[in-house]
Design brief:
- The protein is of the alpha/beta class.
- It has two domains: 10-160, NAD(P)-binding Rossmann-like Domain (Rossmann fold, 3-Layer(aba) Sandwich), CATH 3.40.50; 164-289, N-(1-d-carboxylethyl)-l-norvaline Dehydrogenase, domain 2, CATH 1.10.1040.10.
- The protein contains eleven helices and nine strands.
- The strands form three sheets. Strands 2, 3, 7, 8 and 9 form a five-stranded mixed sheet that branches. A two-stranded parallel sheet has the order 1-4.
- A hairpin with a 4-residue loop joins strand 2 (26-30) and strand 3 (35-37).
- Helix 5 (162-183) runs antiparallel to helix 7 (194-213), helix 5 (162-183) packs across helix 8 and helix 7 crosses helix 8.
- The chain is globular.
- The site of ketopantoate (KPL) has 8 residues, from strand 7.
- Residues 12-15, 17, 57-60, 62, 65-66, 69, 83-85, 107, 109-113, 240, 252 line the site of NADPH dihydro-nicotinamide-adenine-dinucleotide phosphate (NDP).
- Its EC number is 1.1.1.169.
- It comes from Aliikangiella coralliicola.
- Keywords: NADP, Oxidoreductase, Pantothenate biosynthesis.
């Protein structure tokens, strides 16, 4: 989308996806119409050239390797951001890039790689919020936002509190992904069974307590609002993590329920609901991980 709008974009890709993009361009099948764009795609980060912004869009468990391969070829002034679900990618980036170059980001979309070189955008108006991790609306963020914002096809918002935005997604996404993956049921089913709803609510409350322990400014009524939001979701909604479990792929468990448990230990917050979810899902996750 950014390449189509005229920005100078280089895709770092690999395997059959790279081959297809190099041969036929990138095809996007979208709720807003289909399109195809010729875009510079390479596999070797050394050939990236001068970069102003590095945008990491790998799965969370691929981020470390991607950072390692890209970081040596990025100038000391380039901005970097990652849109991984979870709350840890900015810290991972800040461990390898100058911390002041790292911006926080979160995204909303339902999309997947349908075939090499073909992205299917199935639903949800695509939105990226990004901003300074310290919370101010800096000049660089205000300058970048209009360049990245494409309106309906990709709304990009500058956020004055990106940590809060990232956690507002996390407080809904980690519990919904966990409960959906354990129950193998879409949200419309598990939210209406009182026992399962109690597990969901407990998992949400734990994330809320963790946000307080880490001084992340979430609204006081976040638990109620999150449940209301979950109640408004389409009955057949499933999370990407749940679909990964159902299809036998490696999931982002460690970065969702797993991260809640890990932060719970670190900040002295009890997380029995998320720990149950994590423990129940680990056997399959470990089996799949052994294949990678
Ligand atoms: N898809 C969605 O609807 C949403 C996704 N997210 C989050 O966005 C992140 C990305 O998700 P998604 O787009 O679905 O993931 P995908 O697996 O569909 O895409 C990631 C791509 O990155 C490639 N990749 C990974 N590591 C490297 C590397 N070192 N060099 C080159 N290419 C690499 C992968 O290649 P390969 O296949 O070879 O590994 C793959 O093509 C996740 O954290 C997800 O939770 C958030 C909101 C919605
Ligand atoms: C919640 C949703 C569907 C939309 O952003 C998502 O992030 C995912 O399933 O990975």
């Amino acid at each position: 989308m950014w390449a189509k709008s005229g920005l100078d974009v280089t895709l770092l890709a690999r395997g059959s996806h790279l081959d297809a993009i190099q041969t036929s361009g990138l095809t996007v099948k979208s709720i807003y119409g289909d399109s195809q764009v010729k875009i510079k795609a390479i596999s070797d980060p050394e050939k990236m050239g001068e970069i102003d912004l590095v945008f990491f869009a790998t799965k969370s468990w691929q981020l470390e390797e991607a950072i390692k391969s890209v970081a040596p070829h990025v100038s000391s002034t380039a901005m970097v951001m990652g849109i991984q679900n979870g709350v840890e990618s900015a810290d991972e980036l800040a461990a390898r890039f100058p911390a002041s170059n790292v911006l926080g980001a979160t995204c909303r979309i339902v999309s997947y790689i349908e075939a090499p070189g073909v992205i299917h955008h199935m639903g949800v108006p695509p939105t990226i919020s990004f901003g300074e991790l310290k919370g101010n609306l800096s000049d660089r963020v205000l300058q970048l936002q209009p360049q990245l914002n494409l309106g309906e096809s990709l709304t990009v918002e500058a956020s004055a509190n990106i940590q809060s935005d990232i956690w507002q997604k996390f407080i809904f996404f980690a519990p919904v992904s966990g409960v959906g993956s354990v129950t193998r049921s879409p949200v419309g089913e598990f939210r209406k069974i009182p026992e399962t709803r109690r597990l969901l609510q407990a998992a949400i409350e734990e994330v809320h307590t963790l946000s307080i322990a880490q001084k992340i400014p979430l609204p006081i009524d976040s638990v109620t609002n999150t449940l209301k939001f979950i109640d408004s979701m389409p009955v057949d909604m499933t999370s990407s993590m749940q679909r990964d479990f159902e299809d036998g792929r490696l999931s982002e468990l460690e970065y969702l329920s797993g991260a809640v448990c890990k932060m719970g230990k670190r900040f002295g917050v009890e997380t029995p609901a998320n720990s149950f979810i994590y423990a129940a899902l680990r056997p399959q996750e470990d089996k799949v991980r052994a294949r990678y």
